[in-house]
Amino acid sequence: MKMSPAMRKAQENMQPGVITAEGFLGSEEHSLRDIIVRDEGEMQRLGLEFDETAVLLKHLVEEGRKGLGEPVTVDGKWLVQTWEARGHLACPFEDGIFRKITAEIENKSKNIKIIVTDLAIHLMETHHFLEGTGSSFRLDPEKMKKVLKD
Ligand SMILES: [Zn+2]
Question: Is the pTM of this model over 0.85?
Answer without folding.
Answer: yes
